[in-house]
Please model this.
Amino acid sequence: MAEQKATNITWHEGDVTTDERQKLVGQKGATLWMTGLSGSGKSTVACALEQALLHMGLNSYRLDGDNVRHGLNKNLGFSAEDRAENIRRIGEVAKLFADSCCLAITSFISPYAADRDGARKLHEDAGLPFIEIYVKCPLEVAEQRDPKGLYKKARAGEIKGFTGIDDPYEEPTNAELVIDTSTTSVEDAVAQTIAYLKDNGLINQ
Amino acid sequence: MAEQKATNITWHEGDVTTDERQKLVGQKGATLWMTGLSGSGKSTVACALEQALLHMGLNSYRLDGDNVRHGLNKNLGFSAEDRAENIRRIGEVAKLFADSCCLAITSFISPYAADRDGARKLHEDAGLPFIEIYVKCPLEVAEQRDPKGLYKKARAGEIKGFTGIDDPYEEPTNAELVIDTSTTSVEDAVAQTIAYLKDNGLINQ
Model:
């Protein structure tokens, strides 16, 4: 049994309400869902945005292939079913982060509108903000960048079902933000996103 | 294209390091893994602990049946395979929260040592603290509490494979903390946990 007196412990029965958590954590939570072609610059923008938010004193965390595909979703392959489940799980985890009053940033191609809409619905049903950010980039620019050499492999037929080559990318039609990385710098992409968050009351001016 | 100047945006190539994140967020992350019988008091302690940490100005978030079983893990049943996958996913998500510099609290029976050890290994491999908290309670006390009427149903044979009745609970042998809720108040349980975190340099004195 504990010997220490614990008179300074504050708690009540039941869950912490969203309002209470926002006050205690000092910020609101939201999911910033980045979608776009491989090579569109999603990860670069997501990485810079996460850092900018952290430097503003805001909690932010990025979910991407590195920390999700090799962890939570390591038992998923690339079948249509597994791809949908991949995005479903990412949506659920992002929602938990948003619920914890973190600004969650997801960075996945997420090519199908139905999967993205599923993630959006999860958030909306829970009253959590979902901001879809279409990281737009012409295919030819993304293919020319080809940072991981994946387009080359897809063109050579070494990768099947590659988004933009032999699998469709369904462009968002209701994204909260569209950032064309062929004409926008990383800094401006981050600035636009932060401006959106401020304009919509998600972070303080 | 953005018109605003973005000269105040701080970022660098590559991921935010753990050290950098801890400085920016102002705290370390860890997973506090509560394990114990149904009715042991895990959720009550987890709920009070989360609130106490939040009131101390620390980010904390609780993963439990309510926000995980009905969300991320809603496509899992109660077969041996699905139970293992349930705990695996919880371990992976807790790890992400710990990596984000949050104090993640998980509150699941997690009856099998192998599953708990799997979650521990995930954290250890990533250099993230994993604190197993055995919320201990004699079966007869838990069964007498029976807050959800589950023991009654299990005894009546209406629930099969219920931990402690017709499925084993493998007691932790290497838990960082053991809290006997038949002799310890909720406040003392929270105080003991916070003392552990302070003593081990996970939160500031």
